[in-house]
Amino acid sequence: MNMALDEAIAKAVGAGKVPPTIRFYTWNPPAVSIGYFQEVEVEVNIDYCRSRGIDIVRRITGGGAVYHGPGELTYCIAVPQDYSLIPSDIVESYKVLCQGIICGLKRLGIEARFRPINDIEIKGRKVSGSAQTRRFGAVLQHGTLLIDVDVDVMFNALKIAEEKMRDKAIKEFKKRVTSLKEETGRSLSHFEVAEVLKEGFEESLGIELIEKTLSEDEVKDALKLRNEKYATREWNFMR
Amino acid sequence: MIGESVLKVSGGKMIRARIAFDREILDVRISGDFFLYPEEAIHELEKQVKEARSEEDIMRLVEAFFREKHVVVVGASAGDFVNVLLNAFRKAKG
Description:
With 239 residues, chain A is of the alpha+beta class. Chain A has helices at 2-14, 40-43, 46-51, 90-106, 151-157, 166-176, 180-184, 190-205, 216-230, 233-236; strands at 21-25, 31-34, 55-58, 66-68, 72-80, 113-115, 119-122, 125-135, 138-146. Chain A has 10 helices and 9 strands. In chain B, helix 2 packs antiparallel against helix 3 (78-93). The longest helix of chain B has 16 residues, at 78-93. The radius of gyration of chain B is 12 Å and the shape is globular. Chain B: Keywords: Ligase.
C-alpha cells in the first residue's frame, strides 16, 4: 500500500489537487522494495521473504533494493515539477531534498552529509538512500533512513552476497552502513525521528509543514493502484 | 545462447544486460540500480537493441537513443550502456 500511496500523492500534487506533501511511514508487514529497473529474482530471496511474511514490491523509482524492517523509517516528498524550491537538475534536487534529512539529524546531534547521487552518510558510512522520479507533473522522492539495522534479516531477504561469502559481506556491510542507534547510542522511536525530520525539512526549505490527513481522492486512487498495480505479479515481476 | 554482462560503474551503480541470441537477437533485458528518466524509456531501449544485427548497430542504436529521446541517465552514462550491451552480445554469440 505504501508505494500506491506515494504514487497517488504524487499524482494529486502534480494535478494541483493537494499542496506539496511530505509523508513519513513504516512498513507492516516488513517489505523489500526494488528499483524500477531491477530484476526481482536477482535482488530478492523470494522464498525467504514468503516464509517470513515479507512483502516484495517494485517502486516507480530507480535505484537499489531496500529492506524496510521495523528499524527503518521511510519518507516521501511530492512537489509540483515547477516548484520553485526544487532545482530542475536531478542531482542538484537530490541534494536539496536530502538537506532536510541532514538538518533533521543535526537536531539529534548527528553530523551527516550528502553523498552524490542519492545517499546520506555519517562519517563515511551510509545511513540513508533516496530515489526520485519525475512524472504526473510532480517530483516524487522517497527514501529510507536506518534507525536500527537487523543485518541478519536484511541479508536473508536481499541477495547481497552468496551464502559462502556472507560473513565477510556482513563485516564489510557493517563498516559501510550505520544507523541512528549506533550513532546516538540510544533507541529512537519512529515518531521521534519523524518529528526531527519534519523540523529539518521546514528549516532546510524555509517552509512550514501543516499536519493533514490524505484526501479522499488520494486514498481512493491509492487503493486502486494497490489492487491494479502494486499487488500484482505483473508489476512486481515485470523484470 | 544467453549472454550476460554486469558492469559496476564508478560511483557504484550496477548495470546488467542479458541478451538471448540464436542467429538474431531474440530478447534484451537491461536491469540495475541506476536512474533513468523517464523510467519507461528502458523498454524502448530494449526494443531498439533487439533490432541490432551487429556490434556497430548496438553502438549506433544506443547512442542515438540517448541523444534523440531526451532520456536522462543518472549514475551511469550512455557509454556504460553500450559497453555492457556489447559484452552481453559477444557472450550470447559465443
